[in-house]
Amino acid sequence: MASRLFRTKSIDQILADADHPEHRLKKTLTVWDLTGLGIGGIIGTGIFVLIGTAIVGDAHRPGAGPGIILSFVLSGLTCGLAALCYAEFAAMIPVSGSAYTYSYATLGEFLAWLTGWNLILEYGVACVAVAIGWSGYFNNILAFCGIALPHWATHAPGVDGGLVNLPAAIIVLLVTGILVLGVKESARTTGLIVLVKLAVILFFIAVGASAIEPSNWTPFMPYGFQGVGAAAAIVFFAYIGFDAVSTTAEEARNPQRDVPLGIIASLGICTLLYIAVAAVLTGLIPYRQIDVHAPVAEALRVAGFNWGAAVVATGAVAGITSVLFVMMIGQIRVFFAMSRDRLLSPWLSKVHPRYRTPHRVTILTGIGVAVLAAFVPIGDAADMTNIGTLFAFVLVCLGVIVLRWTKPEQRRPFRIPFMPWIPLLGMATCLGLMAFLPVMTWIRFLVWTVMGIAIYFGYGIKRSRLGDEPLPERQTLPQSESV
Fold it and tell me: Which carries the bigger pLDDT value, residue 418 or residue 11?
């Protein structure tokens, strides 16, 4: 039994699967596309919505106050360490599946399944939460224009008389349609949206910086490091998205070079912008006056920039739209990779003959997310997304160390410096942020994990492709330049 649970899939087998005509995806993405996807996935709900709760706090944990600047540094450092591990793997194994595929090559099938199962949690809950957040901002913009949609049509059942959140469902279905047409089209759409929201964030920094009152930064850490750490565990959601770049490695033109650059560049750009936004936001008005629902836009309004608040709200809709694109791409590619390995139904891994996209799993994922976004009020979505992501990050950091030890001769176009200290530090910081998450989040995480284990032993272990047939030999691929 142990040999079946921890059987690994060789890198040659993984690459051969990706090159099989039945499952081959179209290679169209450049380094600019990948960086745009990364920024598109990172900047959105976290900076436009969750930063308010992280600063002010809630009934379950203290806020960081102006110390939110340190919270972003801490979360950015954690993601930066994990990003280096992702970059080494993505350059070495440029296929769909991200952390799931990397775990399969290093830690064995069972841990790979758990990783994929928790990536489904990460992307699935994030997609629903982002769609609901998009609906809220969209309704605010309509109200600003004098248009009011019926309450029953914009809220899930049980939310003050709501029946269905139609805007949330509609945006999910529109994104799904674009994703079926092709990832290049999705990347172009995301790239245009990224330009809009970067302009809006720079606008907020420029306008807000002119009205900063330094006294608002005192006290800097009203609840000490406990508040800063708890806020870091919340705003970690704001960084989720860079890992989605690795899920598109199979569709990159030069993945060995471009995927590491896309991951690191998008994370670095967003970290600098986040720190600047946090500094301006907490300097603009006293932190206790920050609105937890629309903190960035409302801060400008309270400071007297009503027109600026409208501009930022419009940018928030654009930002959240791009996050939805990237999160759905990530969810679909993980499903696709698990289906290709037959841990899920192989029917899902069929590729459209014309568009060369995984259309079946795309459509099913879109319908599922749309239904949940329309009818389910999601609570604690950020915490559930964060714990699933942090767990995957821990396994990726561990997997890099294991593969350096078991496959030292493997060609690595990108190599992490200071091995094994960077992956070990990445594991430690991820586990540290997980410790700041509420107990209820841990309970839900354990329940989700138990469900995944049951599905694996009931279906996956019996039908795994590694267990019933040899995989095809991989054709020799051209060598790409190293990073």
Answer: 418
Helix, coil or strand: residue 106: helix
CA distances from 172 to 177, 179, 386 (A): 9, 11, 21
Please, what is the average pLDDT of the chain? Answer: 84
Question: Can you tell me the distance from the alpha carbon of 374 to that of 167, in angstroms, rounded to the nearest whole number?
Answer: 8
CA angle 468, 405, 339 (to 5 degrees): 30
* Tens digit of each residue's pLDDT (9 = 90 or more) over 321-349: 878 887 888 888 888 889 988 998 889 88
Q: Which residue stretches of 341-438 are H helix?
A: 359-375, 381-406, 421-435
Nearest Cα residue to 183 out of 243, 83, 96, 270: 96
Question: What does each C-alpha distance from 380 to 128, 228, 440 come to in angstroms?
Answer: 12, 19, 9
Q: How far apart are CA 327 and CA 331, in angstroms?
A: 6
**CB of 49 closer than 8 Å to CB of 129:** no
Vertex 34 angle, CA 33 and 38, to 5°: 115
Higher-pLDDT residue of 183 and 386 is 386
Query: Closest by alpha carbon to 330, among 385, 375, 383?
Result: 385
Residues 6 or more apart whose CB falls under 8 angstroms from that of 43 comprise 194, 197, 198, 201, 238, 241, 270, 273, 319, 322, 323
At residue 359, φ and ψ (nearest 5 deg) are -70, -35
Using one digit for the tens of pLDDT, what is the confidence trace for 215-270?
999 999 999 999 999 889 888 877 877 777 877 778 888 888 888 898 889 999 99
Amino acid code (one letter) for 444: R
Which whole number is the average pLDDT over 402-409?
Answer: 89
* Euclidean distance between CA atoms 456 and 114, whole angstroms: 9
> What token pair was written down for 197?
């929201």
What lies within 8 Å, CB to CB, of 211 at 6+ separation is: 284, 303, 304, 305
The single residue listed with the structure tokens 């900063």 is 212
Distance separating alpha carbons of residues 381 and 397, to the nearest angstrom: 25
Angle (CA) 342-385-131 rounded to 5° is: 95
The predicted model scores a pTM of 0.77
